[in-house]
Predict the structure.
Amino acid sequence: MKALEFQTYVKNGVIKIPDNYPLYNNRKVKVIMLLQEEVSNDKEELLEAFREIQKLDVFSEINDTVEWQKQLRNEWE
């Protein structure tokens, strides 16, 4: 089995095969559809993600943030 990959839109239930693939016309093929996920720019979704991260409280044990950064970077000593 040969594989062919291209991107197109489904219009009224029809998938158009690009003209530069004439060997696929009038042939039986197996179709696997992958729906491309939309990127969301929704501000509320982003704010909710930040709220969830805050609940994790990952930096609660850090008393001196400057000292913590120095230790992480190991550049200052």
User: Anything to note?
Assistant: The chain has two helices and two strands. The mean pLDDT is 86. The helical segments are 43-56, 65-73.
